[in-house]
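Fold it.
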Amino acid sequence: MKKVVLMIGVVALLFSCGEESTAQVGDVTEEFTVYGNCGMCEKTIESSLDGIKGVSSADWNKDNDQMTVSFNADEISLDDIKQKIADVGYDSDSHRAKDEVYNKLHGCCQYDRPE
């Protein structure tokens, strides 16, 4: 009987240890276009948001140029997020990187810029 009770306790503990969400009240997820070419672009684009207060995740898909960002809108705006990406040389659907920053990107990262 003790073994059965112990087994039930272990199973209950395992079910209660599910993955916890990092989402906070006020979190939103947005998807938008960021232009780039390769894995090095992906690393630079995503890392431009590393450690930024309010940003909980950032993922850029090089196959379709789509950036997905989850963030707390009470702490940072989508406009500020897009500007941080532009600051490292990457144009988005609404923000353009400075020419001098774009020109410093590695040759394979210099994507065809939209007009």
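Helices lie at 2-16, 39-47, 78-87, 99-102.
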